[in-house]
Amino acid sequence: MRHIFIMSVLLPHGIPHAMRNVSTPPARTLQISSPAGWDRYLEDLFAAWDTVRTPDGRMDMAKVNEIGAPYGMRYVKTTMAMPKPGDTA
Questions:
Q1: Exposed, middle or buried by CB within 10 Å (0-12, 13-18, 19+), for 63?
Q2: What number of CA atoms fall less than 13 Å from residue 7's CA on the CB side?
Q3: What are the Cα distances from residue 19, in Å, to 37, 51, 55, 81?
Q4: CA 72/CA 14 separation, integer angstroms
Q5: What digits encode the pLDDT tens for the residues 2-51?
Q6: Residues 58 and 84 sit within 8 Å (Cβ to Cβ)
Q7: How far is it, in rounded angstroms, from Cα 83 to Cα 10?
Q8: Per-residue pLDDT tens for 37-62?
Q9: What is the 3-state secondary structure (H, E, C) of 20-75?
Q10: How far are the Cα atoms of 2, 4, 28, 60, 64 from residue 76, in angstroms, in the given order?
Q11: 29-47: b (≥16 Cβ within 10 Å) or e
């Protein structure tokens, strides 16, 4: 789904999804998560940032999932496999 100006998206619990900012200028977003906990997950992830990155700069999903487990967060391989804007591969 392409999210356009003044649009909202409701993602029920357990629905796999990914977000990426592909616009110029970069879009701004407001995310409201319920139940709470997403903010604490992000704090833990950012604190471990250098340890969850592989040498080529990708996310090590096993390490990310270890951090996310207490918050009910789980990423799958395809979550981070989305092509980056401008990638041709």
A1: middle
A2: 7
A3: 18, 23, 23, 12
A4: 10
A5: 666 667 778 887 777 777 777 788 777 787 877 778 889 999 999 999 99
A6: no
A7: 24
A8: 888 999 999 999 999 998 888 888 89
A9: CCCCCCCCCCCCCCCCCCHHHHHHHHHHCHHHHECCCCCECHHHHHHHHHHHCCCC
A10: 21, 26, 25, 11, 10
A11: eeeeeeeeeeeebeeebee
Residue written as token pair 């997950």: 41
The residue with tokens 């980056």 is 84
State which amino acid sits at residue 26: P
